[in-house]
Amino acid sequence: MYSFKNDYSEGAHPRIIEAITRTNMEQTVGYGLDEYSEQAREQIKAVIKSQAAEVHFLVGGTQTNQTAIAAFLRPYQAAVSADTGHINVHETGAIEATGHKVVTAKSEDGKLTPALIDKAVKEHTDEHMVQPKLVYISNSTELGTVYTKAEVEALSSYCKENELYLYMDGARMGAALASGKTDLTLPDIAALTDAFYIGGTKNGALFGEALVIVNKELQKDFRFMIKRQGGMLAKGRLLGIQFFELFRDNLYFELAAHADKMSMKLKEGLQKKGYQFASDSYTNLQFPIMTNTEIERLSKDFLFEHMERVDEERTVIRLVTSFATTEKGVEEFLEKL
Length: 337
Fold this sequence. Notes:
Blueprint: E1 2-3, H1 14-22, H2 35-48, E2 54-58, H3 61-72, E3 77-82, H4 86-89, H5 94-97, E4 102-105, H6 114-122, E5 131-138, H7 149-161, E6 165-169, H8 173-177, H9 186-192, E7 195-199, E8 209-213, H10 222-228, H11 237-247, H12 251-272, E9 285-286, E10 289-291, H13 292-298, E11 302-303, E12 305-309, E13 314-320, H14 327-336
Parallel strand pairs: 1-11, 3-4, 3-5, 5-6, 6-7
Antiparallel strand pairs: 2-8, 7-8, 9-13, 10-13, 12-13
């Protein structure tokens, strides 16, 4: 069974495993205060061109979103998200468990616009309702679409004018930046958002996300919230070593580019065979529409997600490529069709 189910089926890039093994018996301080974590922070700040930013390493995406949003918001404040946003549909009420409501906006492509946010803000009029305060966006989105620099600039301007925080979920940040369909860069993201995270779990790391807090008013005492939410890893160097390896050269971007390349090979092969797609993705997620008979046959040799029924005979599936997806795996999938 070859897996296109997710982008974390494999362990990690061999260089990361080698680095963890090589440093295994070294003695370091805990809780992310070790030299590897410090070096990784400095590397990331250099890449994003923001020395004033704070960088924190956490284990997973849901944990990062929950910890950040819980820290950034007052008890009566809420996050605004696209209806397909990860915090709305795929985090088991983690945000709500911290006491914060997720206000959603219907989006066909998974992206938010100032108009969609403005509608949500204006629907909440007084102290009898939650107060929208944080705008949550994913890049790439859960539909595989990406934001351009102009789109994020528009969101940033709207948020500043309306005293909202702009927070970007970057679980698949690498795939978004490597897609070739955006002019957005990490320095742009650091300049335009209040906080964002760089995903490692879905881009070659064993586990781990690097949360970058740019807005100084959100930086104070953040480590207290990490500890309170159960996110302070005692052996924090395991996170630091991984991000040190990913960012000491272009490895992070090379792994994302490979995943996107394999995804586009899948997409082009499916298009040649006449398949339609539920989303026009240029990242490592593809959403072809197939007959239930085809899906049943393919399921004997491949793993993938069933997303939603189109009608009685057809269903949308999700194919995900990773840093380790092989051309042979892609070719075998297309041959099976």
